Every structure is written in structure tokens, then in C-alpha cells.
UniProtKB/TrEMBL annotation:
Residues 19-320 form the D-isomer specific 2-hydroxyacid dehydrogenase catalytic domain. It comes from Paenibacillus planticolens. InterPro entries: D-2-hydroxyacid_DH, D-isomer_2_OHA_DH_cat_dom, D-isomer_DH_NAD-bd, NAD(P)-bd_dom_sf. This is Hydroxyacid dehydrogenase. CDD domains: 2-Hacid_dh_8 (cd12167).
Length: 333
């Protein structure tokens, strides 16, 4: 068996490929690497792919075009050490005898941790206190209190690996958790210890609202002017998912009123321009799309897809397999 690791960027290789992953892969396969630090295109992949049974990819890896797939006569496995596979394959790959997996579980755990971090920052009103201290003001009074996390009601929009992990991480805080999802069943909600509800109910009752939907034609703009207007005063709105889930101008218009706080990790245009109004509003916390940056979980990504390759060879169930149905529900990028 031969495996091609199609990750050319040296920093990315260092980040997502562990020694343990390579050791495990070496036990079952010969390994070849694309040239380090050089551009490696779909044309290059089409030239090389006939010799390989498996290919491991990540961000900025070349796409499996029709030409690549036609020449991939031995290929049985694509392991994408990242999240969505849409940048590297289109639906035609499901017409081939190729198993596709990704390492979304690692990114989900990182993003969930990042989400809870943003909840903490906003619910504890950290940024104004930090700024005040930097200005030489000791803002502390026995009359002051912050919302915090404990005892609050949290509303999660979207059900999947990230929101499930957020629920697990929030367990110690004695919260009421509401969930709005078309995909979560009553039985699954009961097992998670959360309450299913409609979107309006969630927005009106939650102290903290966090988005975890994938971006599709049906979820784009799920929070528009009407929805934002019914968020309760003093609430916190978190978005670590995708910016277009919220109507940006409607969000800015509502935030100008100062009714609630937003903590945003994703934006319509990235990088976010230094003069963007979201950076100037005092009730907004902005971070540069870093929720997936946890070093530990990033280092697990190739290891995760290698473990699925080993399961495939043994005929065992896979953990990160992408079916056509899952593919159609993925965020484009």
C-alpha cells in the first residue's frame, strides 16, 4: 500500500502531523510526501495519483478534479486533516469507490473550547475591566456584579459535534440549555440534557446565544433584523460558526443600540478591515477566526484520519466518514 501526503506547507505539516500519526501509518503503508514548500497543484496530483492507494490532505491541498479522479485508478481513501471537504472534492467523488474522512472532530473540540472562552469573556464583562485597568482605573465595588455563566440560560442554534461538545463543557455551570435544531430528536435532546425549542423562544429566553449551524442556503441569514430585535436586553450573542448566519448590517444596527453584547470570531470579509465598525463598538468582542487554533487538537488531525484508514483496512466502522448526505450539509469553506 502507498500513501501520498499532499500537504506542502511546512508550517502546516508541523502543526497537523504528529510523529505518532506517521508511526501508525508506516506500519501499514509506504509514505511519499509532496515537495515541501513548493506549489503543488491539481495538475501535479493528476500526474502522481495513479501510484497511490490513499491520500492525506489538509488546508491548501490541491482539489481532486475530474482529471485527478479519472487517473486515481488505485485510490481507495482520502483523509482530509481539516474540516469541510468541499474545497478538495465535489459530489462526483461519491461515484468512485473512494472512502472520504475528515478530522472535523478535532476542530469541533477546539471550536467548542473557543466558544466557551468567548462566553466567559463576554459574560464576565472582561474587556471593559481590562481596558479600565490599562487606563489606570481600579473599577471594583461591592455593589458590582457580572452575569457570569453559572445559573444562566444558554441557547444553542444548530446541533452537531461542536454544540454537543459545548454542552459537555458547560455541564459544571448549572445552566439551563435550550437547543434549536431541525436535526436533533427529542430522544437525543433528552440524552444531552437540553430542551428543544423554536428559534424565537430561544432568542427571547436566553442570556447567552451561540451559533453552531453549518452555512447552507437555508441557514444563511437565520438571524436577521426581526430575530435580532427580540434578543433580550443584556444578553450575549456568540458566533464562532460562519458570519453569513447573521445579517451583518442588521447586527450592526442592533448593536448600536447597546442592548446586548456580541462576541464574534467570524466575519463577512476576512481579514476584517481595521476601520470596520464592529471593531469600534464597545459592546463587541472580535477575534480573528481563532476558535479552531487549539494546538493539541490541531496536532491530532492527521492522527485521526490515519486511525480511520486503519479501521477501513480492518473492516471496522469509521469515525469521520463523509457520506453524500453529510457532504450536502457541509459548510462550503
Amino acid at each position: 500500500m502507498r500513501t501520498l501526503i499532499a500537504i506542502a506547507n511546512p508550517d502546516l505539516r508541523k502543526l497537523v502531523i504528529s510523529e505518532r500519526a506517521i508511526a501508525a501509518l508506516t506500519e501499514v503503508s509506504e509514505i511519499d510526501w509532496v515537495p515541501l514548500g513548493e506549489s503543488y497543484t491539481s495538475e501535479d496530483l493528476a500526474r502522481d495519483i495513479p501510484a497511490y492507494d490513499a491520500c492525506i490532505t489538509s488546508w491548501r491541498s490541491p482539489k481532486f478534479t475530474q482529471e485527478v479522479l479519472e487517473k486515481a485508478v488505485r485510490l481507495k481513501f482520502i483523509g482530509h486533516a481539516a474540516g469541510t471537504v468541499i474545497p478538495i472534492v465535489d459530489e462526483s467523488v461519491f461515484q468512485k469507490p473512494v472512502t472520504i474522512v475528515n478530522a472535523n472532530s478535532a476542530l469541533s473540540k477546539s471550536t467548542a473550547e473557543g466558544t466557551v472562552m468567548m462566553m466567559m469573556l463576554a459574560a464576565w464583562n472582561c474587556m471593559p475591566y481590562i481596558k479600565s485597568l490599562q487606563e489606570g482605573k481600579w473599577s471594583q465595588s461591592s455593589q458590582e456584579a457580572v452575569m457570569g455563566l453559572s445559573g444562566t440560560t444558554v441557547g444553542l442554534i444548530g446541533y452537531g459535534e461542536i454544540s454537543s461538545e459545548v454542552i459537555r463543557l458547560l455541564a459544571p455551570y448549572q445552566m439551563k440549555i435550550l437547543l434549536h435544531s431541525r436535526y436533533c430528536t427529542e430522544a437525543a435532546a433528552a440524552e444531552l440534557g437540553v430542551q428543544l425549542c423554536g428559534l424565537d423562544e430561544l432568542l427571547q429566553q436566553s442570556d447567552i446565544i451561540s451559533l453552531h449551524s453549518t452555512l447552507t442556503s437555508s441557514s444563511s441569514g437565520i438571524l436577521g433584523a426581526r430575530e435580532l430585535s427580540i434578543i433580550r436586553d443584556g444578553a450575549v450573542l456568540i458566533n464562532t460558526a460562519r458570519a453569513p448566519l447573521i445579517d451583518e448590517q442588521a447586527l450592526i444596527d442592533e448593536l448600536r443600540k447597546g442592548r446586548f453584547t456580541a462576541a464574534l470570531d467570524v466575519f463577512y470579509q476576512e481579514p476584517l478591515g481595521k476601520d470596520h465598525e464592529l471593531l469600534r463598538l464597545s459592546n463587541v468582542i472580535c477575534t480573528p477566526h481563532i476558535a479552531g487554533f487549539n494546538r493539541h487538537w490541531r496536532s491530532q488531525q492527521v492522527e485521526m484520519v490515519v486511525r480511520d484508514l486503519l479501521r477501513l483496512l480492518k473492516g471496522e466502522p469509521l469515525h469521520g466518514e463523509i457520506t453524500l448526505d453529510k457532504y450536502r450539509r457541509l459548510t462550503p469553506r
